[in-house]
Design a protein that fits this description.
6PGD_dom2, 8-stranded mixed sheet, elongated
Amino acid sequence: MATPLSDTSLSPLSTVAVVGLGTMGTGIAEVLTRAGREVVGIDISEATAVKAVTALETSTARAVVRGRLTEQEREDVLARFRTSTDLREAADADLVIEVAPESYEVKHQIFRALDDIVRPETILATGTNALSVTRLAADSARPERVLGLHFFNPAPAMKLVEVVSSVLTAPQAVAAVTDLAIELGKEPVAVGDRPGFVADGLLFGYLNQAAAMYEAKYASREDIDAAMRLGCGLPMGPLALLDLIGIDTARTVLEAMYAESHDRLHAPAPILKQLSEAGLTGRKAGRGFYSYDAPGGATVTADALTPLADAPETAGRTVRSVGVAGSGTMASGIAEVFAKAGYTVVLAARSEEKAQTAKARIGKSLARSVDKGRLTAEAAAQTLDRITAAGSYDAFADVDLAVEAVAEDLEVKQQLFAALDKVCKPGAVLATTTSSLPVVACARATSRPEDVIGMHFFNPAPAMKLVEVVRTVLTADDVHSTVREVCVRIKKHAVDCGDRAGFIVNALLFPYLNNAIKMVQEHYASLDDIDAAMKLGGGYPMGPFELLDVVGLDVSLAIEKVLHREFRDPGLAPAPLLEHLVAAGCLGRKTGRGFREYARR
């Protein structure tokens, strides 16, 4: 019979057993010992246990060298850690944290054995990120004391800990491990029991989409990873991250998520199965999406798929002058980028006044750069002098490259391209900055579709390094080469992608944002907890709701609708909560209220 919980039955969790001494288990043991806990590390492999001790000795020695520990503190930490291959060594633990392989059978066997070993008041925690905590708890003799305690790798560095309750978990057990997490210097987030919880639930859907994108040969692995690093500020690209996590691990998590959600976005991309079954599981195997210098190595080495640095390309066309169409933030930012790179720029809008306003915005931007020491006053003045404001697109008669940055409306863009077709000289390259509309539809509005290409800049254009270069089936090779050469000159990183909705970044980013909204809509987690989980657990510079409010909920909804319409996937249907907020005029920071409220300026 299970022992009932009372407020007085909880111990301060001073002695902890960690079952499973792989990378995660060893990391958790280090966190606990450095926080003053007595830790017994248990693993069926004596060699693994010895390796865990060696790892702790190495990491603490490094901490001494860096001044983070004294030699005496290091000795105390090592004295608080002992290892065993016998599960009965957990008998005196106040808390047991299981970090065994992601298998119900293995974990179930451990939990049933612990029922006969530990004290009635001991809390049992599983470190799973893919399996049901409720199922493990139901199989235990003490389900009210079973919960999830999900650390992130590497445990000593990552601040997030997800505290996972099942419907059977006693609140006092949750409170005890939450207090422990805080004492360990972590930031605990309370979540319910569903595969992936918050951070991995959002992260692995995104990783799966990236794998499917690569499998479809839509873009190279290098371009997919560069696009997400430079376009979203992520510390790693998705395919490199899959290699780090382990492709087999990712497949296990996704299988568990799909079994519950039946959402095609969670159905593991076939390439994950193929790589896993071939033993190409990522860094630990020395090869996954990329090849590495050795099993367990972190250095990427060239392989058959690595792009050749000196690959021959079709010669591009000469570009000396650039026309930028539009008067908004994006248009002025793009004009500033080209002028800084030495191009003569014509900034044209529907009126002289709008064009002059856009040029004045560039002047203010350049002045800020001077104030911050990033640009000399002389260079700023020269840059501004290269820009001519015009109230008519007739001013584009002599430009070599025309870039439109007008409203994200297909009819508006088609009308503009029809006008550019008449104005621009033969051989001029015509580019659209659309983020979600078909580039070929703009091309077909002209008599020279072979000269039309997508150049998707990111906002703010002067700061963001990425440009998605979008070829249509009609784009000429020398037009593609021209734009790639221009990107080098303006110091932007170009990635190649085909002409389909969302290109690389938006096609991967917005389903992730939509899934975050669904979590809130379903009352699974709060805005604050989800934002914290993705920043602390995923290394994202902004949480999804912070980002949605910055981008604009109306813009986000429009992109979601385009993705849903193009790919016809039910999982891409915009979350009703997003539609409701947009209908209510709550569009984010620009209106003072979106998912959060903001002070009016």
